[in-house]
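Re-run with default settings, no changes from the original entry. Doing this only to confirm the output is reproducible before filing.
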Amino acid sequence: MGLWTRIKRSMRALFGGIVEKTEDPELILQQTIRDMRDRIPDLNNSVAQVMATEKLLAKNKDRLETQVVDLDSKIKASVKMGRDDIATAYIGQLQQAQVDLQKTGHQLEHAQLASQQALKARDNYVLQMQKRSAEAMQLINQSKQAKLQEQLAQTMASFQIGDDASTFEEMRDKIDRRAAAAEARMQLGTASVDTQMQEIEREAMDMQLQDKLLSYKREMGLLPAATSESSPQALPAQGESSVTEGSSGSH
């Protein structure tokens, strides 16, 4: 294989692939429909010209028929008046008119047939255009659906559930840490010094009440008397101190 042949084959393959990639089925179908519709005016003009020829021949035929009848009447009148020379001239015109009428009749028949064929072709073309337009619209809709499915497939292919799951977990941890920090700050704000002092005073009062309860139980003999080693002796009241001293002096 020659070098030039191989180069041409490579160029056709290269540009053919580029053209195929750049071809949009929707745009091509839409342009095809527009081209078919654009041909209708030209087709109508062609049909109109054929029909105009038919009508012109029909008028010529009517004129020739009228001329034949008129010449026939003039010939008869000339013969009746004894003017053979004039009758002979009219006969020549009549023969030519009859020949023209016969030719025009044949031409009119062909023109009528051509008009019928042109109208039929135009109607068939319109029907084909409507059919092709409907098929093109279906293909365009299929192409749009295929594009949508391709985009959805690409989206699903690029969608990584693991990455998104890790993102959700990371955000959840951040939110949990923020909520815990806010709750801790709230607790620190409510636990003020006054609150702690109130708790200490309430605890001291409870201890005094417990000591008083134990003192009552000892006086009632429910508990053994407290010794100096085991517990510190409570200071006597002022009245109790004088009584004790007096009793010791008497002894």
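The CA atoms of residues 7 and 161 lie 49 Å apart. The mean pLDDT is 77.
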